[in-house]
Amino acid sequence: METTLIVGACQAGVQLAATLRDLGDTDPIVMIGEEAHRPYQRPPLSKGWLKGELEPDDVVLRTRQWFADREIALIAGDRVVTIHRESNGTGIAQTLGGRQIAFTRLALTTGAAVRRLALPGTDYRGVHYLRDADDAIALGPALAEPGAERVVVIGGGFIGLEAASAARQLGKHVTIVEGTGRLIGRVVAEPTSDFYLAAHRRRGTEVLLGARLARILGEDASAAGRRGSVTGVELEDGRVIPADLVVIGIGVLPRVELAVQLGLEVAGGIVVDEACRTSDGRTVAAGDCAIMPNPYPAGVGGMVRIESVNNALEQAKVAAATLLGRDAAYVSVPWFWSDQADLKLQIAGLSTGYDDVVVRGDPDAEKFAVLYYRDGRLIAADCVNQPAEFLAIKQALSKGKTIPSLAAADTGVPLKQSVVDAPVALAS
Ligand SMILES: Cc1cc2nc3c(=O)[nH]c(=O)nc-3n(C[C@H](O)[C@H](O)[C@H](O)COP(=O)(O)OP(=O)(O)OC[C@H]3O[C@@H](n4cnc5c(N)ncnc54)[C@H](O)[C@@H]3O)c2cc1C
């Protein structure tokens, strides 16, 4: 009999356990997560949750009954601190709470931890991060407070933009402070960045680009008789932006500490192959913690670490099959979404290594798509309020097809009519 230990109880961990059972594994499964909550979805935390539209049950991934029915032992609120593994594959995990968990199969779904801002002032009251349920539980009511009128969001990535959007919808005065020259610059091309800049400004949010932060300012703690409250942020050029609330969204770092301890290869994440197998050949890893060869187009563009629900689920399915000794490979087209006010962004594929973009439709109408090409072949697209275009592109990509760029630019012809065989193999 085998015992599977899954470290990390969120999107990837829960899916991995579910797939093991779906594939007929009846052996013991133990899943442990350090957060003292039932496994939950993170995406709503920066969307409906901040606007006060959701209850805890709305974000929970699976009920207690679901775990019980599948005989998946879930331990919440305890952290695995060390793992010892013998050469025959058996091992013992030690937790902070004193548990010792023996296993024969090991899956790391440890996710990512928020990147902390290394500047003075982050400990003032009213300074928030947004990664975990606890962060959202603190930030939601803080935003709802009538005194929290001026909100500064540090970081113009997806989390920052979604938090800014929620705050603006709550009627706050919102300023986004982004250090680089454009929004979401790590993921999308200029037309999409430019669109989001204009769209947030249109909705009354101030956006400062190329704005380097010097420190967070707050009231004198001793005068307040407690931890002082935030009063604003100061930029390197001396400008001060007053704030009652500061939300920091400057990215995440993969949780690789257990992988390092196990001697697994780590390079910007836990290195896995297409089967989600780590460098020891038997441990698997999936989700935000894992970095793998680009799944689409396979082998092109090097290694990628993808932070998305879809990726966590797809990798987890593959990892589960691998643990059971089946042949499995992650070959599906990655996709992602982000909701900001009434703007629904859906991204199909990965734009890594693109050399051309085509804008289809009118960004000013807030309905358009940006298609990414490499060597003349479609590799990805950002679709804003264009669900049908997104589906057509995702389907074309998953069949290995392309859409010629001239046809893509012609909004008079439905995209799905322009899908053709991809003529060239991409250079890696
Ligand atoms: C606010 C927010 C909004 C998002 N919105 C979107 C969106 O709109 N669309 C989208 O596709 N994606 C979105 N994402 C990203 C998506 O939620 C993540 O990609 C996904 O949660 C990754 O799942 P995971 O299981 O790999 O990792 P995680 O969700 O990070 O879970 C890993 C878990 O492992 C636990 N853990 C780590 N180490 C240990 C240990 N040693 N012992 C025990 N437990 C441990 C962690 O505490 C954590 O609970 C969002 C993320 C956030 C934070």
TrEMBL record:
Keywords: FAD, Flavoprotein, Oxidoreductase. It comes from the Bacteria. It holds the Pfam family Pyr_redox_2. Its cofactor is FAD. Residues 335-417 form the Reductase C-terminal domain. Residues 4-316 form the FAD/NAD(P)-binding domain. This is FAD-dependent oxidoreductase.
